[in-house]
Automatic annotation (TrEMBL):
Pfam families: YceI. Keywords: Signal. It comes from Terriglobus roseus (strain DSM 18391 / NRRL B-41598 / KBS 63). It comes from the Bacteria. This is Lipid/polyisoprenoid-binding YceI-like domain-containing protein.
């Protein structure tokens, strides 16, 4: 039985390794991708939320990650904090203004390897009509795996912090710190396929 397991593992690895052996383009899977965020409330607790509807592409160069590129979009009307009234407010002109800005976008400008299985990605985030640079600390890409639909799958997990003031996001006086913290911490999990 162990011989069969070993043979299967070798076969799977043989299939997976060539997937990242050259420059390749991957699609972001919106069903298995999204962002979670945290913001401080009144200096005493954290409010958590999430965004979904992620789409986009990842061009990955295994030999030279600096030649890689990421473009991603998320739908702002998917914002969900578990409280409908608060979510409605977040969708208003004060915050995401989903009627005017139905998406937020990220386009990488620099990718570099910072360790085994770790990257730093710098790029332009466009949120509410404001475009500013952000830095993501990234784990990945995960070793490619064959999916049930015959496609190869991989993924990344990224963390970062943005300043609300920097993006003119929720800047009415009643939402200034300490009512709402200026820093928004976020985690992005992306599954890609090809």
């Amino acid at each position: 039985m162990n011989i069969f397991k070993s043979a299967f593992a070798v076969a799977a690895l043989t299939v997976a390794l060539p997937a990242f052996s050259q420059v390749s383009t991957w699609n972001i899977d919106p069903v298995h991708s999204g962002a979670e965020f945290t913001i401080r409330h009144l200096g005493v607790s954290n409010v958590h939320g999430k965004l979904g509807g992620a789409t986009g592409t990842v061009v990955w160069d295994e030999k030279d990650p600096s030649k890689s590129h990421v473009e991603a979009t998320m739908k702002t009307d998917t914002v969900d904090t578990g409280e409908p009234k608060r979510d409605g407010h977040l969708k208003s002109e004060t915050f995401f203004d989903v009627a005017k800005y139905p998406t937020l976008t990220f386009r990488s400008t620099q990718v570099k390897r910072t360790g085994e299985g770790k990257l730093q990605i710098v790029g332009d985030l466009t949120l509410g009509g404001q475009t500013k640079p952000v830095t993501l600390d990234v784990e990945g890409p995960a070793a490619p795996q064959p999916g049930q639909n015959g496609k190869m799958l991989s993924g990344f997990s990224a963390t970062g912090v943005i300043s609300r003031k920097n993006f003119n996001f929720g800047q009415e006086a009643k939402f200034q710190p300490p009512v709402l913290g200026d820093e928004v911490k976020f985690t992005i999990d992306i599954e890609i396929n090809k």
